[in-house]
Amino acid sequence: MQTPYFIFKPEVLEKNFNELKSLCDKYLNNYVVAYSLKTNSYHELIKTLNSLGSHFEAASLDEINLVKNIKRLNILNGPAKTEEELKVALNNKSLINADSFSELDKIIKIIEGKKLEIGIRISLKESKFGFDETQLKEVFEKCNKNNLKIISLHFHCGTQLSLKEYENNLIKISKFFEKQDKILLQNIESFDKPQNSKLSKKDFDAISFGNEVKSKSSIDIKYINLGGGFPEKLKLKNLGCNLEDYFKLLTEYLDKIKKKYNVSIILEPGRVLVADAFDLITKVITIKNNFDETYAILDAGINVLPKVTLSNYKFSKLNQFKEFKTNPDRLDGKEKLLVNDNSKFNKKKQEYILAGPLLFNNDILGRFHGNLKENDLIKVENVGAYCYNLAWEISYKKPRIDKKDKNIFKG
């Protein structure tokens, strides 16, 4: 196959999903796993996850349409939802996580007074996403007046988080719910104005919100959505921990909340499922020396392996072995011979700068220690998260995906 190309390993994806599901069964009991489509939207990947019972989280019209025929609880997130996206999502019975007052107005306009269950995204740190706590009272009032019932609270933890970072986010979520518990026990009527209390304006607004939650029925929490955050397998290894460690933290901080509110936990994993389910095969096109450095120029660069993915790419040279079967595509019927490369046994290893083919100085992928020559094949592991979706078609076409390696190369 023409390089560069991706290799999809469905058996790895299935293993990853089943591992995650087993941990959910062990620690969460009531849960929804909604794969984050933005991570990698390859159709065979979606097909595999669908067969395993996954739900899906979309962030655009294209992604909504990818799963429109899957009749499970699917979720629409994002800070810039258009009316068209909202209409299609509603028609597909997706759960919409409202992100702004503007979006609430769009939803209200679309439903024309009909009842609708929605989620809201709550931001516990300064960002462009969701509502901050001081806005919740106004959010609730708006929903109450317009037949919107809030059934899900969405708190996205982040991506590629260390255990400590993940724990800090869970602490913030836990404190949020502790505040709501206290609210339900207080007599809000004693606080006519924020200045009559020692509470801050932010706490007063939260208390007002909690009191209305207690007295009215426009909020009925069924789900706590934690978004993503789980690191990919290679990052977990580098951090010296495993996925179960994150679930132990989930139980520690959210178990009481789950039982008190009788809610299900929604997880929106991406890279932890797909990062190691894809490899990239790329070829060494040019070896050159420049300014006392040796460059190996590949036919894939940052156009295929962008730094924005935050992934840890692993490069290895493929040893090439003899293929004993006659290639039926060859008109002369001759065997295709791939000779085992033993150069690593008789040559001193050297360092190469791995660079891509683009006309950009920053098209640098990393360094490689070993022996390379032109036409050698390089396998890049851990490329399943965002590389395929973010691949640029600049100067070169987007690489194809091969569902299974032909096994004529062995790393």
Describe this structure in words.
α5 links the parallel β5 and β6 (116-121). This protein has helices spanning 10-27, 43-51, 61-66, 83-91, 101-111, 136-145, 163-185, 201-215, 233-239, 243-261, 271-274, 343-346, 387-390, and strands spanning 5-8, 31-36, 55-58, 75-76, 95-98, 116-121, 148-154, 219-225, 264-267, 278-290, 293-298, 314-317, 319-320, 350-355, 364-370, 377-381, 400-402, 409-410. With 411 residues, it is an alpha/beta fold. It folds into 2 domains: 78-267, TIM Barrel (Alpha-Beta Barrel); 275-410, Lyase, Ornithine Decarboxylase, Chain A, domain 1, CATH 2.40.37.10. Strands 1, 10, 11, 12, 14, 15, 16 and 17 form an 8-stranded mixed β-sheet that branches. α7 (163-185) packs parallel to α10.
Looking at this protein, list some descriptive labels.
411 residues, alpha/beta, 8-stranded mixed sheet, 13 helices, 22% strand, disordered C terminus
Concise summary:
By secondary structure, the chain is α/β, with parallel strands linked by helices. The chain folds into two domains: 78-267, Alpha-Beta Barrel (TIM Barrel), CATH 3.20.20; 275-410, Lyase, Ornithine Decarboxylase, Chain A, domain 1.
CATH fold description of the largest domain: TIM Barrel
How far apart lie the N and C ends?
17 Å
Number of domains: 2
Shape designation: elongated
User: How much strand content do the residues show?
Assistant: 15-25%
Low-pLDDT ranges: 183-197, 321-345, 407-411
What share of the residues lie within helices? 25-40%
Q: How many DSSP helices?
A: 13
Task: Give a count of the beta strands, DSSP E runs of length 2 or more.
Answer: 18
CATH class descriptor name of the largest domain: Alpha Beta
Largest sheet: 8 strands, mixed
Mean pLDDT: 86
The fourth-level CATH homologous superfamily of the largest domain is Alanine racemase
Query: What structural class do the secondary elements suggest?
Result: alpha/beta
CATH architecture grouping of the largest domain: Alpha-Beta Barrel
